[in-house]
Amino acid sequence: MMKRPICITCGTQYEEMESNPSSCLICKEERQYVNPDGQEWTTLVEMQNKPFQNQVIEEQPGLYSITTAPTFAIGQTAYLVQSNGFNVLWDCISYLDEDTIQAINEIGGIDAIALSHPHYYSSQVEWAEVFNVPIYIHEDDTKWVMRESERMIFWHGESWELAPGLTIHRLGGHFQGGAVLHVKEGNEGQGLLLTGDIIQVVADQEWVSFMYSYPNLIPLPASKVKEMAHKVKLLKFARLYNAFHRVVKSNADQAVQRSAVRYLKALEGTLFQT
Questions:
Q1: pTM over 0.85
Q2: Which pLDDT score, from 0 to 100, does residue 190 have?
Q3: DSSP assignment of 85-130
Q4: What are 81's strand-pairing partners?
Q5: Is residue 65 part of a domain?
Q6: What is the mean pLDDT of each run of 10 residues along the chain (274 residues)?
Q7: How far apart are CA 108 and CA 118, in angstroms?
Q8: Which domain holds residue 71?
Q9: How far is CA 172 from CA 5, 68, 136, 176, in A?
Q10: Domain annotation covers residue 1
Q11: Strand 247-248 versus strand 211-213 pairing type
Q12: What pLDDT does residue 1 have?
């Protein structure tokens, strides 16, 4: 019997096949990890027969968060961004059911899906087929697509305008094609940046950080962090959302710059003595 396996650790859905893969290519790479108890798989159908549900919450005008409960895999939040009549799903989650589809359609549906990086590809093709929309992925991350689709648009360069006022920017870092979404008129015209964990909001939500691998605590080199901070400095945004419901509520553009300075001082050995 054919099925589309979903890795329980990272939530990535694979191509249709008769048996589960021996391992998950996403998890075997040093930015992720293989569960110490061994590789495990499920399917979307199996998940739909368990007590999962998606919570769709209005975070602020024009922005809805979509999160699965109980937490599954990495546990990220996807966001539905509404701007000038265009609705984009930023990042994706593995679980999808009829209640979610109805809830999203009631608030205007989806016109496109855009991804920050491969850890959140999850069941993106399922979502794209249900809502009949394209998927935007930076071409540098093509090799991490585990389920292909003709709906995928592999954009290139340093930025891509999805619609007026909605632009994806490649920062790299966590992944070579790692991207953020800039909503020019979001946050009541003050600007909004959605970052996945290309830029990560830390426990003190007035600061952010940058990493090559979060679970394995591998930092990024100073040159890359400088480059990322410089690219973001050109954007206007007062608020920043990461993939885990953490928010820099005000002066987020300044928070990114001072966080980059602190990060660089730590790498260079001038922030502290130890």
A1: yes
A2: 97
A3: TEEEEES--S---HHHHHHHHHTT--SEEE-SSGGG-TTHHHHHHH
A4: 63, 88
A5: yes
A6: 95 97 96 94 97 97 98 98 97 98 98 98 98 98 98 98 98 98 96 98 97 97 98 97 97 98 96 90
A7: 26
A8: 6-46+53-268
A9: 28, 27, 16, 4
A10: no
A11: unpaired
A12: 79
- What does the pLDDT read at residue 274? 86
Q: Is 144 in contact with 196 (CB distance < 8 Å)?
A: no
Q: Tell me the CATH number at 155.
A: 3.60.15.10
- Residue 256 domain flag: yes
Q: What is the pLDDT of residues 189-243, one digit of tens each?
A: 999 999 999 999 999 999 999 999 999 999 999 999 999 999 999 999 999 999 9
Measured distance CA(210)–CA(171) in Å, rounded: 11
Domain count along the chain: 1
CA 74, 127, 38, 51 torsion-angle sign: positive
Would you state the structure tokens that stand for residue 210, as one six-digit string?
A: 């940058």
Q: Report yes or no on 273 lying in a domain.
A: no
User: Minimal CA–CA distance to 71: which of 85, 88, 51?
Assistant: 51
DSSP letters, the chain, are --B--EETTT-PBPPPBSS--SS-HHHHSTTS---TT---EE-HHHHHTTT-EEEEEEEETTEEEEEEES--TT---EEEEEETTEEEEES--S---HHHHHHHHHTT--SEEE-SSGGG-TTHHHHHHHHT--EEEEGGGGGG-SS--TTEEEE-SSEEEEETTEEEEE--SSSTT-EEEEETTTTTTT-EEE-TTTSEE-SSTT-EE-EEETTTTEEPPHHHHHHHHHHHHTS--SEEE-TTS-EE-S-HHHHHHHHHHHHHHHHHT-S---
> In the numeric block, which tokens belong to residue 46?
């199996």
Compute the distance between CA of residue 239 and CA of residue 246 in angstroms, rounded to an integer: 11
β-bridge pairing 239-241 and 192-194:
parallel
Q: Rounded to whole angstroms, how far apart are CA atoms 208 and 219?
A: 13
